[in-house]
Amino acid sequence: MKKKGKTSIVTRYNKWGYIFLIPFFVVFVIFQLIPLVNTIYNSFFENYMSGLNKIGPNFVGISNYVKLFEGGDLWKYFGNTMIMWILGFIPQIVLSLILAFWFSSPSLKIKGQRFFKTVIYLPNLIMASAFAMLFFALFADAGPINSMLIKGGLMSASAPFKWLSNVWSTRGLVAFMNFVMWFGNTTILLMAGMMGIPADLYEAAEVDGCKPSQVFWKITMPLLKPIFIYVLITSLIGGLQMFDVPQILTNGSGDPMRSSMTLIMYLNKHLFSKNYGMAGALSVLLLIITGILSFAVFKFTANDEAK
Asked: C-alpha 144: how far from its chain's center?
C-alpha cells in the first residue's frame, strides 16, 4: 500500500512538469515545426511571380535543387560566407581567450572588472543595422577615415581609397564588424568556463613549477573544451546566417563582384522576388550544410577525446 501511495504522489507531481512544458511545445510546433515542414514542402514546387502573373504551385520534384547547383553561385556564396566568418572568428576567439584569462585569473586581480566587462559587452547590444550604417558612413569615399588618412599624408586627396569597392577591404569590414559585436559575448562565455575550473589545479601546477603557457595548454584548454566547442558551434551557425551587416553595407548587392554576398542574402533575393520554390530549396540546403558542419566539429572533437 505504501508503494502505491508513493507512486501516486510522484505521478501527481510529475504531471505538473508536463503541463509546464505545454507552452514550449505549442510555440515550437506553431513557429518552428510547421514553418519547417512547409518550407520543405515548397522546395519541391515551382512557385514564383512572373510580372503580375503567378506561376504555380506546380510540382517539379528536385528541379529547384538542381538549379541551385547548376550555376555555381551556391558554392561561391558559401565560400564568401565562410571566408568572412573565419576572418572575424579567429581574432574574436584569440582576444576573448586573453580577456577571459585576465578577468578570471585570481593572481592578476584586475581592478574595475565589472566596468570593463560591461564595456566589452556593450557592442553586442547595438543593432547590427546601426553598426553597418555607422561603418558605411565612416568608410565612404569622402568619409572620416579617408579624411584622416589624407590629413596624415598616408593617402592622396585626388585618389581616396575605395573601401567598399575592393573585395578584401569589404570582406574585412564585414568580418571586423562581426568581431567587434560578438567578442564581448564570447569573452563572457569563456570566462564563465574558466571560473568553473578548480583553483586547486592551478595551485598544484604552480607548486610543480609549470610555466603559464603549460598551465594554459595542459589545464585550462582541456577543461574549457566543452564551452569552447559550444562557442565554436554557435559562432559557426551565426556565421552561416550572416545577413544584416553585409546586406546594409553593400546595399543588398554583395558588391564588389558579389564577393560579399552571403547565403542568407542569396535566400533573401529569392524571397524578395517571391520565388518560394527556390527559397525553400535553398533553406533546406542551408539546414543540411549547417548540420553537416556541426556534425563534423562534434566528430572531430569526439575522435580527439578518444585518443
From this structure: 29
